[in-house]
Amino acid sequence: MTLWGFDLGFDRLTVGLFTGLTYGLLAVGLVLVYRSSRFVNFAHGAIGVFGAAVLARFATGMPYWLAFPIAIAVAGGLAAATEIGIVRRLHRRPRVIGMIATLGLSQFILVLALLVSRDSFSGTTYPKPPGLPAFSIGTTAVGSSLTAMLLLTPLLLAALAFFLRRTKYGIGIRAAADHPDAATVNGVPAPRMATLAWAVAGGIAAFSAILLTPTQGVQSIESLGPQLLLRGLAGAVIARMTSLPIAFGASIGVGVLEQILLSREGAGFVDVVLGLAILISLLRQRQGGRRDEQSAPWPRQERRAPTTAAKIGLTLLAVCGIGLAYVVSNATATILTTICGYTLVALSVILVTGIAGELSLGQFGFAGIGAAVSVQIAVLTGNMFLGVTAGCAAGALAAVLVGIPALRLRGVALGVTTLAFALATSGWLLRQPWLLGDGLDVPYPVWHDYTVSVATDYYLFALLLLGLGWWVTARLSGGGFGRLLLALRDNEEAGRALTVTAPLRKLQVYAAAGALAGLGGVVIGFSQSQLSINNFPAAASIDVVAVAVVGGLARTGGALLGSALIVGLPLLYPLGIPGQAVLTLGWLLVVLLMPDGLGGFFSTQAPRLWRRLRAVVARRFAATPAPPAAAAPAVTAGAVLAAAAAAPAGAAAPALAAAAAAAPSVTGDGVDASFAGQSTTTVSPHGLDLDPRRLWNIGRLPAEPLAPGEFFAPLLEVSGIRRSFGGVRAVQDATFTVTAGEIVGIIGPNGAGKTTLFEILAGFTAADGGVVRYQGKPVTAWTPERRAKAGLVRSFQDARLFPAMTVRENVMVAAECGNPAHPGLDVIGDDRPERAKAARADAALSAMGLGWLADRPVGELSTGTRRVVELCCLLTLRPRLLLLDEPSSGLTQADGRALGDLMLRVRAELGTTILVIEHDLPLLSRVADRLIAMDAGTVIAQGPPDEVRNHPAVVLSYLGTDEAAVARSGDLS
Ligand SMILES: Nc1ncnc2c1ncn2[C@@H]1O[C@H](COP(=O)(O)OP(=O)(O)OP(=O)(O)O)[C@@H](O)[C@H]1O
């Protein structure tokens, strides 16, 4: 039976069912691992192949059915070792790095598998399970391996279900995966359960690889690596990476679909369809709001202008690079050109992944598109310059087109989608006749009537383009645009709350990176006489991520280093399988041990060596040893605090600034300024109580007070707002109004729906129904940044801000609303918007008495201090309505009182209306005009504070469950 040329016959479906079983097992393992570690193990398929290799080796010396469980156990052990040795080690690093490490591990394990047994890559020589019948279904021959698959898979799944549901360890795995903290509290060792989950998944992967391999022809690392993974991922993603049965069932569908598609189209078309299925499935899965997967923070990235030594180093490097053109052979020049091309693509990875924090595995796909378009245009127009420009533009356009749907995805989801894109590009898109087709003859580049036909000359041209790409990357990552990307990488929600248009910024960086990758493709493209799909394999997209990580994701120069090592070395000196294994292991170790890559290692070690060298030379030549410099008085955190305490009224901030500037290092506890005590400046053991009347000079903030006529108008009208998460009704029919100039408190027990309501008001979570009106306009469909620009500004419960950035840089992000960063201006070196923002941030910080903290990374500050900094950022936005989420949590009682004063002053001096979620009832009773009480998602009372506090429903639901609140409210009466 056929439909539109696709074969839907029984045989096809049978074959599809069998392959689907394998994909199903793969998907089950991926889901199991994802649930316990929250990332995709790209080495999952490779671990299975390793198990298959172990069986092939053992089956020669012992019975097959004895080698079978041993091979599965070895694969399980390897997976467990991966979890312990790699995943746990990278626990404190961003999740993207963990996934990249498993990409490297995947390649390493595949090479190891080859070393253990070459048979694991060839179906014809691979051992088949003995003692099982072979038969035919229709015209489909079912060998003993497929029989084993058919018989053993249901048994394996039943055993797995029994293990997970009925045994102590299985229940432990599920509990630790779904609620790690609760599991730990209840005595379930979450880390050990994760290791067990990995081991089980590894065993399953080996089971399927052992039975699948005999049914295949000769396999390549590529078909066993990314392609197989994509098929497993499709089912896992459809199952939302949570349900094992759905993942298995969906994968069987994937197997059947693949066979139907293959009856008319090539394997590349299957990649396209699967990629689209994954994308649609991910887009349909509603993002979970603030409870999205949280990743460990990115390390702080020093952003300094290049030192003289760095400039000299770069010049020397350029001179050496040019000099090489005159000494190397044409063959070596071609390899050097390839290194330049890969470096350019790796620079694009640095922009997207290193700076913007988004894992893109598709950058080499953009390079392929750029190469194909540039060659086509150069042939068509005879103009090389047009060809290069078109190649960059095509790379940028493709990146934006892929980026638009991917805007709603991040982390794991984006990595999976771009992997699918890389496979679809090399398997289908680039094969289209309007791109590479069956191969393109590449003309010699022509430069001002000079035909570049010698490889060494072309290498110089490649070097020129590399210089251009390097310069653009350095300018983009070091300027205001780069800082904005770092901010969004650290905390996208906070960025949007401070008016940063995250989608636009991301599209800009995708476009810039796409253009760079396109340029890399151009360099590689014109270095070939015949350009074909073989120049742009999907695996190169992974290699290029490895290049960027090994060189250092934050280091522009690292891309060249990584490219020379990972791409250049094997081309210059063919390494063989053992050499390749050592090289892959080497880059894996760099990922594990050097967070900043080799580039970071060298750039920190080189100055140290230089200083030592200078000291040795100085000792040699000095006639008399110089007397030791008088020890600078040690300025400790205590001294900073004492300086503040001793400073006369009005002089505390400058005194603190002076002391802080002199302090060599201040620990996290020391760098701590909390809200003020009532009247005098005092030093507390945990922080510094500052006097708000001295330091909180809100009147000097660059914010406009509200026009008197705007008072007493309804500023916010909320009607019928509701939102559910699965079966949980977080907010139900919330209806209330906030009048301009009011301070309104929202109270309610934990889980009452207060934060969800705030998320909806600020635009971070979509409501299921109801309307939010702000200044008379319905804003329900507005983005968070649009609301923030209109003055509807929110704070966050954790006040995390952008931990890897300094206090000044944080406030500069808030100052974006007046002086937005522009990538074009950064590239040409116009830093006027930057200077304007820095000045505005400094004014705001000194107005709020925070000037002395300006250069401290926010991640080092205590929660209380971060709240002050967050408030400074928010006030810089000139808010009309301030939504504060538990601003007093993390503050001492005295600081809480000062916070109350501050809220009153913000309203009095700036005319800002405040809606505040608080558990501190005494504080609210003092400052709020009205209270709104919520319970189980519903507004249960609203009115003057006394009335609401004594409302029977409130007493029952809120005070009745929170002893601390009862005690505190008792203080009031
Ligand atoms: N993204 C989400 N996914 C699933 N459930 C959610 C999500 N956001 C909120 N919830 C659920 O909605 C309910 C209300 O949560 P919410 O955080 O809004 O309450 P809250 O009153 O702010 O509590 P708290 O004082 O602890 O912050 C809770 O049961 C919570 O588990």
Total strands: the figure is 21
Distance between the termini: 83 Å
Query: Can you list the strand order of the major beta sheet?
Result: 17-18-19-14-20-21
Major beta sheet, specifics? 6 strands, mixed
**What small molecules are bound in this structure?**
adenosine-5'-triphosphate
Tell me the strand percentage band.
5-15%
Rg to the nearest angstrom? 31 Å
What quaternary form is this? single chain
Transmembrane segments: 12-32, 39-58, 64-84, 96-117, 137-164, 228-254, 266-283, 309-328, 334-352, 385-404, 411-430, 458-486, 507-527, 581-602
Domain ABC transporter: 716-961
Subcellular location: Cell membrane
GO molecular function, one term: ATP binding
What would you note in describing this structure?
The protein has 973 residues and is α/β, with parallel strands linked by helices. The chain folds into three domains: 2-286, ABC transporter involved in vitamin B12 uptake, BtuC (Orthogonal Bundle), CATH 1.10.3470; 319-604, ABC transporter involved in vitamin B12 uptake, BtuC (Orthogonal Bundle), CATH 1.10.3470; 700-972, P-loop containing nucleotide triphosphate hydrolases (Rossmann fold, 3-Layer(aba) Sandwich). 60% of the residues lie in helices and 9% in strands. Helix 4 (95-116) packs across helix 21 (538-551) and helix 21 packs across helix 22 (556-572). The chain is globular and about 85 Å long. Bound molecules: adenosine-5'-triphosphate (ATP). Adenosine-5'-triphosphate binds at residues 288-289, 291, 725, 728, 730, 748, 750-756.
